[in-house]
Amino acid sequence: MSRNEVLVDSQWALAHLDDPKVVFVEVDEDADAYAINHIRGAVGLNWRVDLQDGLRRDVISKSGLEKLLSEKGISNDDTIVLYGGNNNWFAAYAYWYLKLYGHQDVRLLDGGRKKWELDGLELVSDATVRSATTYVAKEQDRSLRAFRDDVVNAIGVQNLVDVRSPDEYAGRLLAPAHLPQETSQVPGHIPTAANIPWSKAANEDGTFKSDDELKALYEGAGVDLNKDTIAYCRIGERSSHSWFVLRELLGIKNVRNYDGSWTEYGSLIGVPVALGDEPGDA
Amino acid sequence: MSSCGAVVGGVSLDHVDVTTQAVIQGVVTKGGVPANVGYNRLHDRNDEFVAEVPLSAKGEFRFFAAPGQWTVVTLVPGGVVRTPVTAELGKIADLDISVD
């Protein structure tokens, strides 16, 4: 997988706005952002409503995803270009999600909504209407997803990469600083996890850094890229951004996203936890 | 559980016990009027990025930090402004940021 196959810039996007086989999809937790305006022709996905099971904490089922994408007018052979706010956090989560269910051609718009907006490119408020399709998803590719037992067994054995901010890693914050701080989990991180905040992979305008810079970032933090890797954050979306960097941009094999992340791990009974700025021992 | 998605302008203080939070909030203006296109980023004491919110239509933003030194980095089309701020538990640090 090369950068050109998984990432597009605004020039490419502008040239494909009217391409019937390219579907732009905005993904935000804040549904108001899409409703206010969006890239012309884009459909919107609401992280909370569309991409969560609704009853239990899990991704939606294969049939649920098939229904969702069919209703959005997306076909199996479409190129899906995802973009969104928060430097593509949720767009990257949706990318991981679509790969989990086997969509062939998915890409991210480099810089997401923020760069598009700051560059003064066109956003419209017109509703997008696409004819319904019959989308057929594949079974989940479990090689992309880590569960809690995988994570516990990976302590001191595989690379664990905690992509939250240093204050969340150390236990000084329990949530990103644009949200009220929670008390439902204990503070800290999984022992032996390296702290490589997702944000270090992005430039200020939200675009991804170069492959050389990204490789240096992870290797400089002591991550052995020849070992299996599990990335986690708080709920699995920032770690999707880092998963995208490691697997899709750098082509590292055996990188999994732990979507249970700290909200699950920090609530488990009896698992080891490390506090402070150091990774801690296995 | 809150998601990690940034609500435009920041999460409302409704139903939030501010005595347990160290809030940094404010308004960004450009040319004397609210800057409604832009983003505020919060950097920690080591200048490490921590969070980002889009500005509301009224130029508003809000963060829930830990006590200590922070820097609010404002991105608007054509400009970047850095504003240092101290957050304290149970208090609201109010900022007026001008990007003229």
Describe this structure in words.
The complex is a heterodimer of chains A (282) and B (100). Chain A folds into 2 domains: 3-140, Oxidized Rhodanese, domain 1; 143-265, 3-Layer(aba) Sandwich (Oxidized Rhodanese, domain 1), CATH 3.40.250. In chain A, 33% of the residues lie in helices and 12% in strands. Chain A has helices spanning 3-6, 10-15, 31-36, 47-50, 62-71, 85-100, 112-118, 148-154, 166-170, 211-220, 238-249, 261-265; strands at 7-8, 22-28, 43-46, 79-83, 106-109, 159-162, 194-195, 229-232, 255-257. In chain A, the strands form 2 sheets. Chain A has a 5-stranded parallel sheet with strand order 1-5-4-2-3. In chain A, strands 7-6-8-9 form a 4-stranded parallel sheet, covered by helices on one side. Chain A is globular and about 55 Å long. In chain A, 48% of the residues are buried. Chain B has 100 residues and is mainly β. Chain B has strands spanning 22-30, 33-34, 39-43, 49-54, 60-65, 68-76, 79-87, 92-98. The radius of gyration of chain B is 13 Å and the shape is globular. The interface between A and B is large, with 41 and 37 residues.
Total strands of chain A: 9
SSE pattern of chain B, N- to C-terminal: EEEEEEEE
The fourth-level CATH homologous superfamily of chain B is Immunoglobulins
**Could you give a short account of the major beta sheet of chain B?**
4 strands, mixed
What is the CATH topology assignment of chain B?
Answer: Immunoglobulin-like
CATH-defined architecture of chain B: Sandwich
CATH topology of the largest domain in chain A: Oxidized Rhodanese, domain 1
Q: How many beta-strand elements of chain B?
A: 8
Mean pLDDT of chain B: 86
Taking pLDDT < 50 over at least 5 consecutive residues as the criterion, the unreliable ranges of chain A are none
Strand content of chain A: 5-15%
Order of helices and strands of chain A: HEHEHEHHEHEHHEHEHEHEH
Global structural class of chain B: mainly beta
